[in-house]
Amino acid sequence: MMEDLAKVPWAVIAPLIVVQFILMIVALVDLRKIHATNGPKILWVLLIIFTSYLGSIAYFIVGRKQS
Hints:
Subcellular location: Cell membrane
Largest sheet: none
Number of strands: 0
Protein name: PLDc_N domain-containing protein
Main location: membrane
Shape: elongated
InterPro entries: CLS_N (IPR027379)
Distance between the termini: 52 Å
Helix content: over 70%
Structural class: mainly alpha
Mean pLDDT: 89
Number of helices: 4
Strand content: under 5%
Keywords: Cell membrane, Membrane, Transmembrane, Transmembrane helix
Order of helices and strands: HHHH
Low-confidence stretches: none
């Protein structure tokens, strides 16, 4: 198993993990600030946390209620 981890191209994967984490934090902070969303906030929190990129992107496209 350790040999398999040594073969992983971390130079490619590490930036993707960092971008995913930043996108998730930005989405959660924005969700905390906004008053009205399309759907319950707890659902958006769960989607953002458990579906990685898709949940955060879906929140910014669909979840925010436009004023």
